[in-house]
Specification:
alpha/beta; binds manganese (II) ion; binds 6-O-phosphono-beta-D-fructofuranose; S-adenosylmethionine-dependent methyltransferase activity; manganese; about 450 residues
């Protein structure tokens, strides 16, 4: 599309993108290599010598990848046949076509950050699938699980809150229900602080009860469209015919604590009758360290069910029931692990776009989704969200995101500049958040 600003890129020396590619990405690769090392005896027990050979192969492929990155080598096509290999390689050609002749080939420190960062995670996956019999190993699984276990206290508080709320939810008046809705929305927002890729795989979990912090965190919500979400959903509830459906789609982000916050939100939507059906979208391959896969989704619900805290296990039981009865549906699609911005979805994944069009509202969780919504570009802070979406609008949608990358739109004049002056890293520290809505057209 003409006239759109340039992509964020590591070519801007000193930018967050640059520092990410230079420091954080190699660190994530080193951790991945270390994880393989530590699972050596497990691979041996499971697969014998073949397991050891596979571990060696995966490590050498990841070391090679790290070297390519650190020495700014050209981005090479994917080689292993997989469902999305051709699309990836076409996209690489497209990136090549955007370059001037003098630039040569797409490279780590030259090409759009969104592209090279997604490519790194896709290459990590390639290293694993090229190394049977350990080709189903999720290199980030233990980090995701650890985040879940370390957040127990906060999970207990959330599940207790939800179960107690469910008991009285029918008796709440409009205003009380709205307040409860706003609470679960904020819980889901701050749950997004807990991603593991920003921290380079260092542990970040929710150790304290998030419920007690909501009031204190309010000043850090830079765009707050919660009222508009309430209007939309409460209107759906009022005007809904008996058998008809209000569907809310949640494009998930991280597993562990954040996933619990999203499931709490999803449960509240059903219990309050603001929605009657929820579609969740997860990733088909391990992604950006902590993102949710089908395996993580099922694993977490099972963990909850077997908890010895009665409210937590009740959540596990209820949520399994939502799945069995079809009120909750988990779906995945390869599009979510492609490098494309969402404005390309109708072209690249028309089936997914058509599916999203059937939702009454779509929540996009997290920072990476925000980057893909806005194309990860150097927009002025005051550009309207709708404009930055560049035509992407399958249905009314809302980004629920803590800021962890140098892209933010839809601010008041002067707001961004003021923040820059007082807190140089406001865009990337995960301290601020938004509920940014693009309503019915
Ligand atoms: O899990 P989230 O919220 O999408 O965050 C992913 C993180 O990875 C990044 O894409 C950078 O590595 C950041 O934008 C963000 O810090
Ligand atoms: Mn994530």
């Amino acid at each position: 599309m003409a006239g759109r600003p340039a992509s964020l890129s590591a070519r801007d020396v000193g930018s967050f993108a640059y520092l990410s590619v230079k420091d954080r990405s190699p660190q994530i690769l080193t951790k991945a290599i270390d994880t393989l090392h530590r699972h050596k005896s497990e691979f041996f027990e499971k697969h014998g010598e073949k397991g050891l050979e596979a571990e060696k192969k995966a490590i050498s492929l990841l070391s090679k990848l790290r070297n390519e990155l650190q020495t700014d080598k050209p981005i090479v096509p994917l080689v292993e046949k997989f469902v999305d290999t051709d699309i990836w390689n076409q996209y690489l050609e497209y990136q090549q076509s955007l370059l001037n002749e003098s630039d040569g080939k797409p490279r780590w420190f030259l090409s759009p950050w969104l592209f090279v960062e997604c490519y790194m995670y896709r290459r990590i996956h390639e290293a694993i699938i090229q190394s049977p019999p350990i080709d189903d190993f999720d290199i980030f699984k233990e980090l995701k699980d650890q985040n879940f276990f370390e957040s127990q206290e906060s999970i207990i508080a959330l599940c207790t809150h939800l179960q107690e709320l469910r008991k009285t939810i029918e008796d709440l008046d409009e205003n009380q229900l709205k307040n409860e809705f706003f609470k679960v929305l904020q819980i889901s927002l701050w749950g997004n602080k807990c991603d593991l890729s920003l921290s380079g795989g260092e542990h970040i979990s929710q150790k304290t009860n998030i419920m007690n912090s909501l009031e204190d965190l309010k000043p850090f919500i830079l765009v707050n469209d919660m009222d508009r979400l309430w209007s939309l959903l409460s209107n759906c509830k009022k005007t809904r015919e008996k058998e008809s459906v209000t569907r809310v789609d949640i494009v998930l982000d991280n597993s562990g604590f954040e996933l619990i916050t999203d499931l709490v939100l999803a449960d509240f939507l059903l219990s309050s009758k603001l929605a009657t059906k929820i579609h969740f979208y997860g990733k088909t391959i391990p992604w950006f360290v902590s993102d949710t896969t089908l395996h993580d989704f099922n694993w977490i619900i099972k963990q909850l069910k077997h908890s010895n805290n009665k409210w937590v296990s009740q959540c596990g039981v209820d949520w399994e029931d939502h799945i069995k009865t079809g009120r909750w549906v988990y779906l995945d699609h390869i599009f979510w692990t492609l490098p494309h911005e969402f404005s390309a979805m109708s072209q690249v994944a028309p089936d997914l776009h058509a599916a999203l069009q059937k939702a009454h509202l779509i929540f996009f969780k997290g920072d990476l989704n925000y980057r893909k919504l806005t194309g990860d570009r150097r927009w002025e802070f005051t550009v309207p969200f709708h404009e930055a979406l560049s035509g992407f609008h399958p249905a009314p949608l809302c980004s629920i995101r803590t800021l962890k990358a140098e892209v933010q739109v839809g601010l008041q004049p002067g707001q961004g500049e003021q923040l820059t002056a007082s807190e140089p890293n406001w865009l990337t520290a995960g301290k601020y958040g938004v509920f940014q809505f693009d309503g019915p057209l």
